[in-house]
């Protein structure tokens, strides 16, 4: 029996319409302004946009249109080809000593298992070092499982070492003769959402199927390993390389008053992993740099031109196949003054670093002073730049300013299905825009020479 | 190139062993004691155990062995058959106005879509009432999407009304001629993990495919609906009824000093949904009632026998097909004094209710006094008992004590893949055991008559 629910005349009227502007979201999250508009639009109207896909092409068209509407000049799509990777069906289960389905996802550049699954003994390694120490040939025909213990860090510093389990673990396992590898996700959450990301095959290694399980699944495997009973896995990961696929950068400018001065480049990446909608990685970055560029010119042109780069194929762009490299090839002869990138989500900026030459101390002081009222701390460490600006920085030995964002929660979401709009806080997104605007107002109005960066 | 990582002799020694007792979990969660041991064991050694499955049968054997090891008497598996449901492959995507994959799961008792997907226009309804108000026939060939706005509540009171979207929404949509229905999950989290759960087909309704999307996906659909563009979905939900499947209860006793006195029944359910490992729903309940029964007799037998019921097929046991009904059929002629159930996770007990007759006021006072030092508040509302004890309560008009648990986070996890061991806090699990033990010590040692319960 279905009990009749009370109904209001209003609701009857609403229901008669096929669509309505009244929604009832359980997790409302609202924002406004240019930055929110970009993140909301990209995640809603495009969604997942893995490099080389038709979705990434739609994202480029979306970006091109959006940047024009926002008033940018010289908006251009700059296509290139790249050897990327595409996901296939994927699932896995433990078959011994207990039957347990596993929440698994393939790593980028994994090769396919047999279509009916790779069935093998699975060997537990508590760390990447333990895997490396395994005797040659000891993994023949087996699947290696590599555990680890990534923790939260405000500066995101756990991702280097623990991300190496993903970047290097598969090559090491393959070198030992393994038939496949499964790793604990490089992530800090406890949800059944595994973290994908590209692995990098070492030279001469024959690739093997490689996947990551969610943290709760890795916990389960660790508990079973502690019981000392042999483990077997049956895993199907059909993802495979996608060579020579179309990608591209989108470049746009806000011209400055003096076009002869070296430009300021601000970058992000447009592609995303396919599991989520790329809200924090990296629609937020594109939103931040774009909104800040506009805000920096709100009261009139800056002295220098600000160029925005929404890069293609960042996620699988190592080894010279990414948008950052293509940008440097296309624009390496144009004079740049400074490069900056935003690719760490939408949480607050809390720290600033630069690599300015001693001759630009006054400029550095001005930037730090502009950020001081926002509670942003100068940090003496080396700048990182980022994948989208790395090639042009290297080519021109560019000065860099890094605005460091709070990374305590970034690796809860990074490269998972959970990278969705509801995770973006409009207030911290805007704090990023404000911090970037403050920096751009100083740099893009700097009349003096901005010298090559030092260190790094 | 793969950089050689430093390696220690110790690690080399470890790696030479196929398995090791050293694990490196990123999300360590440890516990001890009987209750933890049960939750850890069931989730690790059995995992998902949907009613009617071979996994549920393994869980019964596990429970039988465990209860014997723990020292229970008269441990019995009491098999029965039930019309249940089994999951099949499932996936869905929006195909218009934007292409977006959706994190979807079928509701229990959904019928299958065509194997190559149900492709249809999708109509947005902000509430269940709006769906109900839709004109008859207006949904012909379409998929209804029903949104809502479930919020957290300490007493879990949102689940009744918002759970109705799942329980009743599919029947209402089918009555309007819909080809299928998708609902916002009845859950309070923001992860890409949809919440499953059974729907109840109203009499005379021809079942349709019915699924739930995660909250972030429902947010996306709501944003798209607000744009006013027609939506289309392509969904494949292959789950189907599984009639006459084997299930069963596991019953065990700790005999009291006076076997002639009516017994105290404490219950939980052994089956779980298949998406997670049933840690909070309801391995924790079985752990709590079982550990508390043992603790109540730690210093010697209680006056009355305490019987433990680990029920089968709670999740799909409405309409008289569940373990609670079977228990009442098997044991309805044996005198019971009080029935209690634990099926709301492992968060703290904060509230206590009873339905004692006025003649048992002294008993009620004693229970409230025993819980008082733990900060547990007496509440005058009606008792609920629960699905596993409902039939025996109805049959014998039993007295009931409800220990109300904090439900602020329960519906983040309920019926999702995220219902895993790491979500159980050993400290609050033990607080439950302590509260239950305090109550059982009073009730199972009550020498006077415990009268029929009142109200409800
Ligand atoms: Zn990124
Ligand atoms: Zn990334
Ligand atoms: Zn339950
Ligand atoms: Zn349940």
UniProtKB/TrEMBL annotation, chains A, B:
UniProt keyword Signal present: yes
Subcellular compartments: Endoplasmic reticulum; Golgi apparatus; Lysosome; Secreted
Superkingdom, natural source: Bacteria
Species whose genome carries this gene: Novosphingobium malaysiense
Keyword annotations of the record: Carboxypeptidase, Endoplasmic reticulum, Glycoprotein, Golgi apparatus, Hydrolase, Lysosome, Metal-binding, Metalloprotease, Protease, Secreted, Signal, Zinc, Zymogen
Limits of the Peptidase M28 domain: 249-438
GO BP: proteolysis
Protein name: Carboxypeptidase Q
């Amino acid at each position: 029996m279905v009990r009749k629910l009370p109904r209001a005349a209003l609701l009857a009227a609403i229901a008669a319409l096929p669509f309505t502007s009244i929604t009832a979201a359980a997790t409302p999250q609202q924002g406004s302004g240019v930055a929110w508009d970009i993140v909301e639009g990209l995640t809603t109207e495009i969604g997942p946009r893995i490099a080389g896909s038709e979705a990434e092409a739609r994202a480029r068209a979306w970006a091109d249109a959006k940047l024009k509407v926002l008033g940018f000049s010289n908006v251009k799509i700059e296509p290139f080809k790249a050897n990327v990777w595409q996901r296939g069906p994927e699932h896995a289960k433990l078959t011994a000593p207990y039957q347990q389905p596993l929440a698994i996802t393939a790593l980028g550049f994994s090769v396919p298992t047999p279509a009916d699954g790779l069935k093998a003994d699975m060997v537990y390694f508590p760390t990447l070092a333990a895997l490396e120490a395994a005797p040659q040939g000891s993994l023949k025909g087996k699947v290696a499982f590599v555990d680890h213990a990534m923790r939260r860090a405000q500066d995101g510093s756990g991702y280097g070492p623990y991300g190496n389990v993903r970047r290097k673990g598969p090559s090491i396992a393959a070198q030992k003769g393994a038939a496949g590898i499964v790793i604990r996700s490089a992530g800090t959450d406890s949800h059944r959402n595994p973290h994908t990301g590209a692995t990098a095959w070492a030279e001469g290694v024959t690739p093997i199927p490689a996947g990551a399980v969610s943290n709760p699944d890795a916990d389960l495997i660790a508990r079973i390993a502690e019981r000392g009973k042999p483990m077997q896995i049956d895993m199907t990961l059909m993802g495979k390389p996608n060579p020579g696929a179309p990608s591209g950068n989108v470049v746009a400018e806000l011209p400055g008053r003096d076009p002869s001065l070296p430009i300021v480049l601000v970058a992000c990446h447009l592609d995303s992993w396919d599991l989520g909608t790329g809200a924090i990685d990296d629609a937020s970055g594109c939103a931040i740099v774009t909104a800040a560029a506009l805000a920096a010119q709100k009261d009139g042109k800056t002295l220098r031109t600000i160029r925005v780069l929404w890069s293609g194929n960042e996620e699988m762009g190592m080894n010279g196949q990414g948008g950052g490299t293509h940008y440097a090839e296309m624009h390496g002869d144009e004079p740049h003054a400074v490069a900056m990138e935003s690719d760490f989500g939408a949480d607050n900026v809390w720290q600033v670093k630069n690599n300015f030459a001693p001759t630009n101390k006054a400029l550095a002081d001005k930037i730090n002073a502009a950020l001081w009222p926002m509670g942003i701390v100068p940090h003496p460490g080396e700048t990182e730049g980022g994948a989208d600006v790395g090639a042009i920085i290297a080519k021109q030995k560019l000065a860099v300013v890094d605005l460091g964002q709070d990374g305590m929660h970034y690796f809860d979401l990074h490269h998972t299905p959970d990278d969705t709009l509801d995770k973006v806080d409009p207030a911290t997104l805007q704090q990023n825009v404000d911090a970037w605007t403050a920096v751009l107002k100083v740099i893009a109005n700097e009349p003096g020479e901005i010298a090559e960066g030092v260190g790094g």
